[in-house]
Amino acid sequence: AQKITQTQPGMFVQEKEAVTLDCTYDTSDPSYGLFWYKQPSSGEMIFLIYQGSYDQQNATEGRYSLNFQKARKSANLVISASQLGDSAMYFCAMTKGGGYQKVTFGIGTKLQVIP
Amino acid sequence: GAVVSQHPSWVICKSGTSVKIECRSLDFQATTMFWYRQFPKQSLMLMATSNEGSKATYEQGVEKDKFLINHASLTLSTLTVTSAHPEDSSFYICSASNPRLGTYEQYFGPGTRLTVT
Questions:
Q1: d(CA B60, CA B72)
Q2: Which residue of A10, B6, B7, B102 shows the fewest CB atoms closer than 10 Å?
Q3: Torsion over CA: B58, B71, B35, A3 (sign)
Q4: How far apart (Å, rounded) are the C-alpha atoms in residues A15 and A18?
């Protein structure tokens, strides 16, 4: 079974500062995919970034980067230069294999950006 | 791109009635779609995997006779909540992936908020 753990129920960050959202995972599968999604108050799930278990380099997408530490089974999300629009729920998630399968979500972290 | 739509975006129904929620992939074909449920301030919980042309696969604890899923075409999956009760009130979200795009991203619909009175 796969499990995602997010230990920060809420985080505050000053506008323009960087913030790290923690995520650890547990799986016995050698091949898996890790995701981060953003969910604003409107409810839609917005894909941010993906990391494959065999990827050698950390994934980056604009202001988002994923700090992948395989030995520690962690996949922290780093948001640089926070903006007010970044205030939302952030979910860490994983799939078995390449990623075309069902997604297991963590409980989420609520990020609030302070002007 | 890959866009997934849901209809309706919100619905209020009386206890005991049935409600159908549609999930459509607008610009790609989705052989597999997923249905999730999210209670307030909680995470998304997978309910079932919807496969085109075959029966859905339900997660443990999800009543398949209560949550009917039909994946009649490569662009449409429906979730019908039968004999709805107030405890079924939730946010229902579908998702789909498109391996042909060459990305592992799952595309989520905007969600349907169901309130049962």
A1: 23
A2: B102
A3: positive
A4: 8
B8 reaches A (C-beta below 8 A): no
Q: What is the pLDDT of residues A16-68, one digit of tens each?
A: 999 999 999 999 988 899 999 999 999 999 999 999 999 999 999 999 999 99
pLDDT at A22: 98
CA-based nearest residue in chain A for residue B3: A46
The model's pLDDT over A92-104, given as tens digits with 9 standing for 90+, comes to 999 886 556 788 9
The closest alpha carbon to A53, from A26, A79, A80, A78, belongs to A26
Yes or no: say if B7 and B78 are a contact pair by the CB < 8 Å rule.
no
* Chain A residues within an 8 Å CB radius of B107: 47
A56 Cβ partners below 8 Å, 6+ apart? none
Q: Are A3 and A104 in contact (CB under 8 A)?
A: yes
Residues B79-99: tens digit of each pLDDT: 999 999 999 999 999 998 766
Strand partners, B96: B33, B107
